[in-house]
Amino acid sequence: MADPLSIASGIAGLLSLGIQVTQSLANFYIAYKDQDNNLAKITQNLKNIQGIFRCLHVAVQDHRSKADAQEILKEAGQATHKCEEIIKELDMECRKIQKDLAPGFKGRIQVAGRRAAYPFRKSTLQKLEEDIGEIRANLSFALDVLQLKCHDQIQDDILELKTLLERTNASQVSSTIRAWLMAPDASLNHNAACAKRHQDTGLCFRYVECQFNAIRRARNRNQLDECLRALPRDLDETYERVLCSIDKEYIDDVRRVLTVLCFSARPLTVNELIEAHAVDLNEPPHLDRDGRSYGQDDLADICLGLIEFAATEDDNGQNSLIARIAHFSVQEYLQSDRILQQNSRRFAMRSAPANTELAHICLVYLLEPGFSVEVLSKRKLKEYPLAQYAAGHWFHHYAISEEGKPRIEKLVVRLFTGKIKPFATWIRLHDMDRPWNKKVDYDRPATDIASPLYYAARLGLESVLKSILATGTEGLSVSVNAQGGRLSNALQAASINGHEKVVQILLDQGADVNVQAGDYGSALQAASSGGHEKVVQMLLDRGADINAQGGHFDNALQAASTNGHGKVVQMLLDRGADVNAEGGDYGYALQAASSGGHESVVQILLDRGADVNASGGHFGDALQAASSGGHERVVQMLLDRGADVGVQRGQYGNAVQAASFGGHEQVVQMLLDRGADVNAHSGVFGYALQSASSGGHGKTVEILLDRGADIDAQGGQYGNALQAASCSGHEKVVQVLLERGADMNVQGGHFDNALYAASINGHDKVVQILLNQGADANAQGGFFGNAFQAASFNGHDKVVQMLLERGVDANAQGGYFEDAFHAASFNGHSG
């Protein structure tokens, strides 16, 4: 039988090895702790584990001389021995990380690569951290057993230690430690770590990463020695070397890839990038998959660490692999002036030519015969992965491209004037007339698509417009007044975006300036809404009816006033616009300008005779519109011009109620100072106090109460202020109202009482406040009969429990469902 000394020696040896391993790991990660914030935490944990190993080592040594510990140490030794192989494996892997054990040059490169990437894998660090936590918990408990328990309980303590040790037997430890020691898996998703690096990693780590990439490309000892002797001074020099080391045959390919990734309007998938590279822009431009296609690995190889790939989710929640520039500093360098002074200047990038290239790629792709002449389908989109990007963003790139681009202009003209299928396919993929529709409209009939003339006018494509008017589309003539699209016709489409030259062409070609149709009713209203002064002037000069009714704003003056376009307002008034013309959402131009807080426009309209008390529109009058938005200076201007502070009309009933709902304290004070009745009864909320309470505006509530508001006034949607606050869950306002003497059991309003209002919406904190203040839990009223039934119907368990604890009658009859059980069951809350 082995003696305690030999048993303890075996355990001590294993603990010594544990000390060495943790020390080695800690030393390794300390050297790199600036790479990631998590490493500092892991390093500290490794130090803590090392300390526990040392304490256990001392404790085991103390038990070596105790005869009665023989069996204990034997059992502990047997359990510990099962882990010996794994701990030794851990030690071996640490040595591989720290020391070049493999002979020759390739072995050294392999170790360098392993140290550069593997120990910092997110999964590696996360698993290591989890294992450290488990080991620390077990060892700390074991240490307590050995050090703190009395000698009489030694057998029980060692039994516990045995159980703990058995928990980390060979099979379990093998599956956990081997998992994180395993060589990096090529299929491992390390993209989350890459994303984190973009946010948190400094340029220093990027520099180190680039040097490791350079080391990996060395093919022999001399190349390695040269690489190490001539390390670049900074990232600029690093990127210069990388770009200059690209094989001559790949320079154009790499430049295309970098251009596309740096200037794309959104992140591109790998498949989209591959397709973008496959477009040959040489005459005749075409998609050359056979001659220009690269695979994902090929792109990574030729770009020498300048790009990377990351997993993400698309708009439909599907997994997708995107390509991106490896680090923001790469793009910054490529677009900087510094690169122009270096040997890598051929890779310098500027916005205009880069966007010209991208627009060219997109247009060639949309016009690709294999894609554009066939019926659009999901299968076809899968076959042509860049199609949606090209359809949605070609104009974005075109609009900011270089001046004088005849090759691209020809392609745009082809898209609009050639065969109708490419044009219709583009609109089905991305219709700017329907920006809310993000889905591909595969089955949209061509008859439902506005004419190419309409879209050319909307985009301001002067040369395309001329070509369409001169030759038509597919040989057919086009009417300048053709109807179609949300804006009805080409003139309105051009006017809304202020395309002066296009408007001029259309007018010269006989466009009807007074056609009444479309979202804006007329071209003049469209131009006025956008504040396009020159277009407004052109339209007026061509006889546009300045007071024409219709469209979203009903007339041009209200359109300009709504959006605060003072110069257009002045122009329209000078040309005879009716300052008090009625119509539209705001009723009058003055109310429209007041709602937006456009002080200068309000001043112009008042000076030109606008009726300050004109009634109509959403807000009833200008004062209520300004008060609702909290526009203090406009309110002051209107009051100074005689606005009636006490008139009752509009959604809110009066200006004080409108200001109170928005919590605009200064406006409320201003109106009250000008004689507004704090208890005036009208509007959806009935009273200003109820309006402020519904919005949860505690300070406004205090102001109204201080100025004499009736705290229990009955009326409006909620019946009273307390019920309004309770319904919306505004705890502080509820507290203020109760402290000021509000009657919590008063009946009335949509919910009949405050407790019912809070209960039906699950506002448990408000329910608690009301119950603490003595609210009647069994009060009858409302659609459901009582608060308990209302809470039960909506499944508000916490409120139900509160009410039960306060003695509510769970079997009370009344309401639509007669009792709470049927109310809960009807809505599926049977638990």
Fill in the keyword field for this structure.
831 residues, mainly alpha, Serine Threonine Protein Phosphatase 5, Tetratricopeptide repeat, three-stranded antiparallel β-sheet, two-stranded antiparallel sheet, 46 helices, flat
Topology:
Blueprint: H1 4-30, H2 37-63, H3 70-81, H4 84-98, H5 104-117, H6 122-148, H7 154-167, H8 170-181, H9 191-200, H10 203-216, H11 221-229, H12 235-244, H13 251-263, E1 268-269, H14 270-278, E2 279-280, E3 286-287, H15 289-292, H16 296-302, E4 307-313, E5 319-325, H17 328-334, H18 351-366, H19 369-372, H20 378-383, H21 387-399, H22 406-417, H23 420-429, H24 452-459, H25 462-471, H26 490-496, H27 500-508, H28 523-530, H29 533-541, H30 556-562, H31 566-574, H32 589-596, H33 599-607, H34 622-629, H35 632-640, H36 655-662, H37 665-673, H38 688-695, H39 698-706, H40 721-728, H41 731-739, H42 754-760, H43 764-772, H44 787-793, H45 797-805, H46 820-826
